[in-house]
Amino acid sequence: MAINYYIFTDKFIVPCDSATAYHYISNIEEYPRWWGKVYKKITKLKDVPAGQPGAKYAVTVGGFLPYSLTIENEITFIDKPSLILFDAYGDLQGKGKWIFCEVAEGTEITFDWRIAANKKLIRLFSFLLKPLFKANHAFCVRKAKEGMTNDLHLKSQLGLSS
Description:
The chain is an alpha+beta fold.
């Protein structure tokens, strides 16, 4: 396996049903609102409704490290409200999936992402800095859990539905 290849499998629980969790993840254009500064820019590339196969976006993301990544994500398959599959191209290339499973505390979200780093900085320094790049990814996923949980609590306090 190439040194610039990464396998990320992250799990976190949010306090809502799977349909609500699915809604958050499938609506990419809403990420900056609740995910925060991780998502710097989102551009819709295909005129397909959010969360549907064929929906394609260019996203610019960053974490705590001083670089940004630009990735084109295209949804390839959905099984609402339990699964979203997508392909990624650009600075990172590969396949990802979001899995939603209701548990006693709400919904467990699994993010499984298998990608090769194409961005020159990451590709060249993966042999040395892979743990740091993995920590940056973990930071971004932690921000997803925090942002979604905080947004759900705020909506609950205001009596709004998701």
